[in-house]
Amino acid sequence: MQNRLARLQANFTICSSFCVKSGEVADIENDLFPLGLEANIIKTVTTDMMQESSQSLLQLVGGKGYRLNHIAGRSTVDSRPFQIFEGSNDILYHQIADVITSIPIRQRLLNVCAI
Ligand SMILES: Cc1cc2nc3c(=O)[nH]c(=O)nc-3n(C[C@H](O)[C@H](O)[C@H](O)COP(=O)(O)OP(=O)(O)OC[C@H]3O[C@@H](n4cnc5c(N)ncnc54)[C@H](O)[C@@H]3O)c2cc1C
Q1: Could you tell me the domains of the chain?
Q2: pTM score of the predicted model
Q3: Is 97's C-beta closer than 6 angstroms to any atom of ligand 1?
């Protein structure tokens, strides 16, 4: 239970940070073309975390959470489409893999070391 609560809190913090960052960057004034990889990563990770968090909350709450008028059941249903629209995650994961595998191995290692 503690592990699930800690993970929920962590997911909330990460998703909120991504939203703040996106809100700051996504502006018609900015050239967003070079940020395609970053956008795909943020979209897929955030939406997967939303669904994972809702499933975890449902597990924590138990049977009564399965009702659609409970936040656990409601969030499980409402977060699912985010993995499908605005670019389905399955396809975005392909695109992320394509970009990363197109970067030469030496550059990839340098990028990882720079993190
Ligand atoms: C609640 C909701 C609201 C929406 N709102 C809008 C909206 O406001 N405006 C709008 O324009 N659209 C909207 N959509 C549509 C949404 O953008 C599409 O449903 C989405 O792009 C997926 O397209 P599709 O449904 O035709 O599925 P398909 O393209 O038929 O895909 C079905 C499944 O196959 C997978 N798949 C398809 N091709 C590949 C491939 N090459 N490799 C691997 N996997 C693949 C997909 O990942 C997906 O899981 C909404 C959808 C939902 C569910």
Answers
A1: 2-114 (1.20.140.10)
A2: 0.87
A3: no
